[in-house]
Amino acid sequence: MSQLLLVIVVVAAIALVATILSAVWRKVSHQGNANNVPRPAKSEAQNATPAPHESRAPVDATSSTMSFSAAELNIPLPQKLSPAEVFAKLSDLALGKARPASSVTAGHQEVADATAVALQDAATQQRYAPRRPNMLPRVLSASNDDSFSSRDLAALIARDPSLVGNLLKIANSSYYRVTPEPVESVDRAVVLLGTDGIRSLVTAALIQPIFRIGGADFPRFPEIAWEHTFRAANASVPYNFLVEKSDPAAAELLSLVLGLAAIVVFRVTLDQYAKYPRLRPDAGIVSSLLDAHSASVARRIASSWELSEATIAGLDGQSASVSQYPTPLGRSLYFGRLVGALAVLRINHVIDDETAQASIPVTNMPEAQLERMWARLNPKPER
User: Fold this and answer.
1) Residue 32: which residues within 8 A CB-CB, separation 6 or more?
2) CA-to-CA distance for 186 and 169, rounded, in angstroms?
3) Right CATH number for 83-131+216-377 from 1.10.3210, 3.40.720, 1.20.1050, 1.10.10?
4) pLDDT 10s digits, 64-93
5) Contact 264, 115 (CB under 8 A)
6) Where exactly are the structural domains of the chain?
7) What is the pTM of this model?
């Protein structure tokens, strides 16, 4: 009996000591974490400066709430597309899916070879070459002349009835429209948009009709090509102005010329296919020809429009496989083409907005300006 009592006393003593030590340890541990124990060092990813177009929630230094990364919380990050993936999706949207390479016969290669030869002088042929709109140099000159009033500019534009009709149509589009009331006169458009805005609007209005081509093959191509060209031009302008600081008007014009060149390549390709009635035009062949030849054809068009060599050089090398360019205009065109493609894919529900914004290349453009540009390229549908 005495031995049993001794065992009970020993067990109770051990339990009491364990309880006291546990309480003391919790107290010491809490004080150490609060005052003496250093916080874990941040990782390189946490210390990295966020990209200009990314937002980061402000951190409350007085808060003791723990924060977790998206990965730690198992929140999926937006998918980021490579430039090659972006341009491939744009091609699929405009032309449809390409057939497997194994199903493309030798006849298609003959068409591709004949197209490459025909494009050597297509930019100078009246059948294909988009001549410089007669009004374009006068409007550009007037918009850059401080002595030319808004009334004078409106009067100049009004001389071309077809231009007025197309200008008012574009002015009332979701991209340009700045008031609930429709724009019903050139004078009103000039007042609302200002000199730079009306210059861009007139340039678009003069060039858009060239994209109005019909045909049974790839019926969506002209529409998608115009939407991409228009948005590429309007993305290249703020990028050039804010980042490259060279010549926004030239960046805009070259973007439009590059779009015109794509129309020329497209038409020449289909004309060559027409010589082979048994061959169904292949989306993959058309896409590869557009990528391979649009920049060189654009160069010939720009030269025939008597643009300066320094300006024309911005077109060199523009393709889906190149992302580095040596000139400010070249970089501006590339940025516009890529962001314009993302906007078209977003508008056509090929990708979501999170994926599109995550795929915009990192730039030194202020975040607020980048957000404003993206909002204009992706206007909300009118109700």
Assistant:
1) none
2) 11
3) 1.10.3210
4) 445 555 555 566 677 899 999 999 999 999
5) no
6) 83-131+216-377
7) 0.75
